[in-house]
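Cont'd.
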Amino acid sequence: MHVLISLIWLTLLTNIQSVPAWYKAQRDAILSTERRQSVGSTLKLTSDEEAVNKMIMAAKQGEIKSAIYDDSNYIPAVHFFQGRKRMEQSKVFKIIQQMPKGAALHLHYGFITSNAWLVKNVMYRPNCYMCVKEKVITLTGFYLTPPVDKDCTWIEISSERAKSTDIETFDQWLYNNLTLTVDNPEVVYPNINVIWRRFLQYFQTVGGLINHAPVLKDAFYESLKEFHEDGVQYLETRIGLMTPYELNGTTHDYTWTVKTFRDVVNEFKQDHQGFSGAKLIIGGRKRYNGSAILQEVKAAMSLVEQFPDVVLGYDLMDQEDVTHPLLYYVSELLYPEAHKSNLPYFFHAGETDWLHIHDNNLIDAILLNTTRIGHGFAIPKHPEVMRLIKERNIPIEVNPISNQVLKLVSDMRNHPAAILISQDFPVCISSDNPAPWEALPLSHDFYMAFMALAASDDDLRFLKQIALNSINFSRMTNKEKASALQLWETKWNVFIKRVLDSHNTFTEV
Amino acid sequence: MHVLISLIWLTLLTNIQSVPAWYKAQRDAILSTERRQSVGSTLKLTSDEEAVNKMIMAAKQGEIKSAIYDDSNYIPAVHFFQGRKRMEQSKVFKIIQQMPKGAALHLHYGFITSNAWLVKNVMYRPNCYMCVKEKVITLTGFYLTPPVDKDCTWIEISSERAKSTDIETFDQWLYNNLTLTVDNPEVVYPNINVIWRRFLQYFQTVGGLINHAPVLKDAFYESLKEFHEDGVQYLETRIGLMTPYELNGTTHDYTWTVKTFRDVVNEFKQDHQGFSGAKLIIGGRKRYNGSAILQEVKAAMSLVEQFPDVVLGYDLMDQEDVTHPLLYYVSELLYPEAHKSNLPYFFHAGETDWLHIHDNNLIDAILLNTTRIGHGFAIPKHPEVMRLIKERNIPIEVNPISNQVLKLVSDMRNHPAAILISQDFPVCISSDNPAPWEALPLSHDFYMAFMALAASDDDLRFLKQIALNSINFSRMTNKEKASALQLWETKWNVFIKRVLDSHNTFTEV
């Protein structure tokens, strides 16, 4: 077998002597026509970048080579829950982790702050309660006097911890109540509906924590910190119209939430020079009725008007297959236009395996003038949608691990974004909801994109391009964008130098 | 939940009142632009066909509807081994089974004759031996005196059966040695290499049977019979350069094999009026060295010349990821052209999940002027290959179940042929190797294509078109093709009438 492997790689990596020149010329012409169309292919690398490129490509090809005879060895071919630890040992991953990744444009607030912080910080605060039913935490919240609930028992977490003989075990139990990670996802989550139910339950569990006004503030800050540490300099996150509560039960309105977010972002930027900022997209749910959505549209219009530097627009979210299509809300979504106003949309669309059912949301997203498309998993099956996206250059927010965990695709090499990438569609990579599945803000998703959505020979230029795309496709003002690009370039040059230095140090030793 | 389901289907199936006319017009324009590009969309149905269409679409939508809240209920979303029995209960399947399906163009002789026939017919013949090692049949063959083998024990099957107290259990054990079907394929076949090893072992096990000259003759006949009974009127099968043996150990040459095949086909056609015939494509293996392939190319050229009505050309087969790329054999494959001769090729290409490794075989297949492309699973990730295939109208032989069983894709809705179908690429549906995984000649694969590769609203026109495509993309002579199309049309009209009649009878009762 090993002789055969060597032979195959030989025939791949060397010129086969007996190929006639005319044949080789024709073949190279087709190959280069394809390569020229791929994301990142037009970038020119400096000599330092070329050196880093050689390193990362040697590591990438090594991982591929070691999986040719057993693709269950290939990290993107297996479930993230089963491959994550191996991924974190990968040299490719370690380089990607250091890389300045630009912006994360598809996120959901409430699903982006690490479970570790929720457990080790928020759940250590006084007055923090959990409601437990059959050893499962179903609700949480901060109370002076906890409510009485017939379905579950409210317990103060810190008192319970104090009673515990083994604090680490107690905290691990809290953590296990949050994380979706299991060893055998194919058994625990047999279909898309089961995993979505568990996924939405995550928000039900943590919602009471992050809706608490003081926590909300800290969670905003913590999120920015975690993203910043993972090489993300800017983010745009979807957020529901939240009305955070104080310990005495009073609540704040949306405006307070937006202002608080703005203040926290400014504070974070003052504390961290290399950060460009963060903005909000208001998000409603596709199981609401039309009049509820109309109220939200109006609220979003008002927030965009009041906070044009913070609130970007509106989106509708939910498990696409089983909730209303965008078409159901067309008259509500056309309200701003009908009133000579404007509300930018950032619609989720085509986050499904079905064809010509709710994936037709892609058509409505385009007709409703969406600024970007969230997921767009079904795009390659829609030729006219593809044409329109190219023509109008509508960015697509691809979230590889989310699509795998939420059961749209198992082997990441089959992710349809590979097709979009091969045709230089305007794609950026994001992480959707990294917290419930213990992903880093962008590193794990960038690894998947590089190793499985891009071709085996797509290289550093791909990584550089998706970072650049993320900044270019953001909704920062032109001035902010120019400054973010400049900042990114500085970071990129430091990154290239650092990788080269560490390599030189390593080879010298 | 059920209220929600109803709501969703309502919003799908009815016009939403509040959608403005101008919006609806724009939306319909995009939808119809997409629909017009889909395989079969230009066909016009007669009123009888429309009636059948309503029936099959009601059944199709019923299956989709019942799976919206649990897609592990959706047969194409689960592994064929786990969904087959449910599939056979499906009304859609039952209609497809009756349908005249035209031609099967991608098959491998040795993998197309049902295991039931091998066990209940061939393994009942005298002098039929199996070599058993640790209760597994590793080899078979017909012998006057069985060979002595240090690795396994040769036993005459009929003597062993005679000793058995329970013949059905014995025959079931034989059967289990052949079939790849298991209840838990994800455990038994954890990766592509494991399933391929088991798959190739199938041929090792049955090879000794079907290489026996009298069996070969009968197996040819039996294959035609099984395909005919499944509504297939013509087939083209790959076949190795076989040298069948007689009981006394003497062997025949390739010419004998081709002549025998031709005679059997003629005999079968005399016995069965509604059958158009069968032809051969010689197939070598991509683990041979160049000089072996050159010998085969020459042999194939000679067979095409001697038997232009039977032998169509040449192909190279194997597990694509781990064997030589076509490029390795370019000079051998250019031999006919270099000698002012012609050998039509029918290359397997792009039967892989990897990208820009052996899937580049697609480029070589095109440069070597392939008549059709086998599988082409990787085509949508190759934009220039897509363009050239469209331009040259190169038919693609899609084998859905094979790709699932051999672990390229798990949920059939993610099969990339869906993209080709949405853009009216010249596709036909075949079954590759139905016997080892207990598929019918075409019915199961047609079901998968209709329910998962085609869109939820692709209808009878899709089925009709893929049947027509299969005849049009065959390599029958023009005259044979015209007569096959006429025959198919007669069968199609009978089918339409029969489905209508059975429905009327059913509703009257």
